[in-house]
Amino acid sequence: MNAPLMIDVEALSKTLKQVVGDQLDARAPSDRDTQIKQAELVTAILAKPIMALPEDLTAVTGFGSTAAYKLIGRPNFPKTFKLGKRRYCYPADFLAALPGIQTDETRPDNETREAED
User: Fold this and answer.
1) FRET pair for 40, CA 20 to 30 Å: which of 4, 22, 31, 48?
2) Domain count, the chain
3) If you compute the radius of gyration of the chain from its CA atoms, what whole number of angstroms results?
4) What is the pLDDT of residues 34-91, one digit of tens each?
């Protein structure tokens, strides 16, 4: 089994705030505040010991629930597990798989795009 990926939550939070702040300098202050709150939410979700699916996944990725379920069903999505009736995954496993999840071939809407072409 792989060693757990350690997440420096403070550094992640600082980086997210900086990136969001840089991207929103030209926007209205209320937009900037909203985006910073979103970055703080993502940081809080990734700092939890487990991520609830699909709710936490939709908050982190910005996908809707249908796209999140398609993503969860992909072979390169981290292994999930059930506690009671709920499905979860480890944030560290999600972060480790993120580069593969972000590739064009693994977009949740890829089947639809291919059918339209």
Assistant:
1) 4
2) 2
3) 16
4) 777 888 888 888 899 999 999 999 988 888 999 999 999 988 899 999 999 999 999 9
Contact 79/92 with Cβ under 8 angstroms?
no
Q: How many CB atoms lie within 10 A of CB 9?
A: 12
C-alpha span between 96 and 78 (Å, rounded): 9
Distance separating alpha carbons of residues 66 and 49, to the nearest angstrom = 24
58 and 104, same domain (yes or no): yes
What pTM did the predictor assign? Answer: 0.60
Do both 35 and 55 map to the same domain? no
Residues 28 and 56 grouped into a single domain: no
